[in-house]
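Appendix B, record 7
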Amino acid sequence: MPNQPKQSKDSPRGQRVADRERPRQWRKPPLRIEQSECISCDACVEACPSQFGAVFNLGDGMAILPELCSGCGQCLPPVCPVDCIYPDEDWSPAPEQWWREPFSPHDPYVLADGSKRPPVNPPRIRRW
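Structure tokens (predicted):
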């Protein structure tokens, strides 16, 4: 992909991963996935803008790292076919094991060459 920006650890997302802090200027609360309602379809992963890259499939379910989530709502219905994503006003920091995902080989927001995943336009809407 020519001229595709790099998703490096020096990027704004990389800095949020390193600091494990949510920017104060983000006014909306982060979102959370209700595991008991989620069908792990990955539509939210595809919809999350790569500059945030907050949603991960952890193998045993989907998770949103609140420190990376801007609260933009790109993952909400109609993208999420089961409407299992909610604002998390009283969020707490992500568990330590979730932090193994950003910039790992399984990071869905970083391509093999280190470039950012291009935006999915429009996000796929899955019907079940």
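Remarks on this record: The longest strand covers residues 31-33. The chain has a mean pLDDT of 87.
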